[in-house]
Amino acid sequence: KVSILAHQAAITSSSSLFSKASSFESSWQSLSQSFAQTQSVCKQQASFSVVYQLIQTLYQSYQTAFNQYQSCSICNTALAQIGFQTQFQQSVSQMYSSYQSIMTTSQQFYASQYQAQLLPILREISSFGSFTQTIATSLSVDLKAILGGIRLGVDLFAKIGLDLGGILAGSSGGGLLGGVLGGGHKSGGLLAGLLG
C-alpha cells in the first residue's frame, strides 16, 4: 500500500515538474517574441507611445519568464527532456541581438525621451545576463560560445548594468544580480523586489 502511494506521489510530482517546465518554455517563447516585436517596431520609427508600451510589455514578459524559472528551480532535467536546450540555443543569440538593437534604435529615434523614460525600463531587464547564464549552465550550454559568434557591444550593455564582458570571458556574468539568480525562491523574491 505504501509503495503504491509512493509511486502515485512520484507520478504526480513528475507530472507537476513537466507542467512547470512546459509553462516556462511557453513564457520563454513569449519573451523571445516580445524582444523581436519590440526590435521591429523600434526600427520602423513608430510613435513613442507605441514603443514605450512595447518596452513595458517586454519587461513584463521578462518578469514572467524569470518568475516561472524560479518556481521551476529543480526542473532542469524536465527542461532537458522536452528539448529546451535546442530552443534556448536557437533563440538566445537573437534575443541579445534584439536587446542591443532596441537600445541603439531607441536612442537614435527617441533621444529626448530615452534617458528619462526608456533607459530605466531597459535597465530593469539587465539581469537578463545572469538569468541566461544560469539557464545555460543548468543545461550545460556554452553561452560564451553562442554570444561570441555575434556582434554585441560590451560597453553598450555595461551602460544598463549587464556584464556581457563577464559572460564572454566565461565568468558567471550578469553583474551584481548573478548571485541572486542562483538562490532559489528566496532570491527570486529579492529580485522581484529589486525589479518591482
Number of strands: 0
H-E string: HHHHHHHHHHH
Task: Please report the number of helical segments.
Answer: 11
Shape: globular
Strand content: under 5%
Alpha-carbon Rg, integer: 18 Å
Structural class: mainly alpha
Query: Termini distance?
Result: 48 Å
Low-confidence runs (pLDDT<50, min 5 residues)? 5-12, 172-196
Mean pLDDT figure: 82
- Give helix % range: over 70%
**Number of discrete domains:** 1
Sheet having the most strands: none
What does it look like?
It is a single chain. The protein is an all-alpha fold. It has one domain (2-195). It contains 11 helices and no strands. The protein has helices at residues 2-43, 48-71, 76-81, 84-109, 111-124, 128-138, 143-148, 154-158, 164-168, 178-181, 184-195. Helix 1 (2-43) runs antiparallel to helix 2, helix 2 runs antiparallel to helix 11 and helix 4 (84-109) packs antiparallel against helix 5 (111-124).
